[in-house]
Amino acid sequence: MLKDSYFALEQWPRASLGVSLLVYMGLVWFLRWKRYKRIHQKYQSKFEAGTLTPEEAQRVIAVSSQYDMPMLLTYSLSFALFKTYGIPTISKILASTQELSSREWVSKRYADTEILICELGTIVIVLSSLKALPLATWVTCPITGKVHVNDTKSPPLSEKLSDAATKSADPRAMIALARVNWLHAKYPIKNNDHLYTLALFAFEPERWAKQYGWRALSPLECQAYYLFWAEIGKRMNIKDIPESADAFKAWFKGYEERVMVSAQTNHDVAQYTLDELLYAVPTRFGLREFARSLAISLLEDITREAMMYPVQPAYKKQLVNVILHSINFFQRFFCLPRRSPQSVVQVSLPDFQANQTKRKETASSAEGINNAEAYRMHPQWYQPQPWYKPVSGNILGKMKDRLAITLGLAAQLPSPELRSNGYRLEEMGPMKYETVGNDEVMKMAEELLQCPIRGPWARG
């Protein structure tokens, strides 16, 4: 009897550990699907009725792109941009801009594109040299310019901006889009190349989530990505956007098969881009080249051949698959969901009054708020070449910056040359255009929003 009791007591820690693990996994499952279920309960009926709007579509895609799989879907957009370099008419324009002739220019283009696209939730593209522009802003910030109160937990805007006219205004997405449109006009980009890039942004997240994510995108989410990017395309004046996702996919595949062919400019642009993306990977023991080959192994054969890269050993593709599937398995069953959205740009309105750099204390033409020279933004994370990173104001911050250089995680310290005072969306793009077209871009953004842009967003 005593022996049986001792045995039972001995087994108790194992049993309790197993029960605790099951309870935890159940909690993870409940919380991880909670936001997904809520957005589907809200918009599934509109999707089935065919009445989902682009604004609602942007709220739908926020669940996957900002909460459930932000890193994976950011990579999907990065590879979407990368795939466009396999089109000779695109790579030739990029190569001709001379914006790829130095690390500084390449890194700025990449940083700008990431910010611009995320701000739109974000607007995307200018073909690489331009593409570093506004992806993040397009995708993250409301395309209507209005903050949707039910979709944010940020403090009331009245607490952030004293100007009553800006209490529901967030014009970042349309400023980013206007800047991209202005820059695009400087280059002879074919409409079909615009259309192809747009299709990649609409459909690559679906493909990556299905292949590498902890869950696939639902039919509602797939349609939302199409609707959102189709709306962005219309605002970019891209012509002949197919009326349905299926028709767009069919056109996209046909166009890719016809025009994605090998060219030296494809290879050159791809190499410059990989050099920047892999900068932080050590060169010792061939690690950087190994990482380069892993990245190439992710490319589809048609893209790899167009970029003139050799076939990679099968084990490298398998290694990438094992790594990505291990991550998605751990996420699905053991990781609690994010409590706040993840994006390179600040999702809620920036707290200009408390945190932003004020370069010039002059009154704005809009309600007495400091003008555009005073209000600048900073990304939520930085590239190895730390564009827009503020200079650290304390010893600990300076030590961290120097340690990052020592470890090879950063190329240099924040500085005015890297625009440490922050960025303005209407100034982004190649350095030669930094101070050109700013007022024109703001007027274009006002036309897209159909209302004046005031407060800290105005140029004053």
Automatic annotation (TrEMBL):
- This protein's record includes keyword Transmembrane: yes
InterPro entries in alphabetical order: MPAB, MPAB/Lcp_cat_dom
Instruction: Give the source species.
Output: Dendrothele bispora (strain CBS 962.96)
Q: Which residues form the ER-bound oxygenase mpaB/mpaB'/Rubber oxygenase catalytic domain?
A: 188-312
Q: Provide this UniProt record's keywords sorted from A to Z.
A: Membrane, Transmembrane, Transmembrane helix
Q: Which Pfam families match?
A: MPAB_Lcp_cat
Q: Which residues form the signal peptide?
A: none
Keyword Membrane appears in the UniProt entry: yes
Q: Which residues cross the membrane?
A: 12-31
Tell me the protein's name. ER-bound oxygenase mpaB/mpaB'/Rubber oxygenase catalytic domain-containing protein
- An example molecular function term from Gene Ontology annotations: oxidoreductase activity
Q: PANTHER family recorded for this chain?
A: ER-BOUND OXYGENASE MPAB_MPAB'_RUBBER OXYGENASE CATALYTIC DOMAIN-CONTAINING PROTEIN, PTHR36124
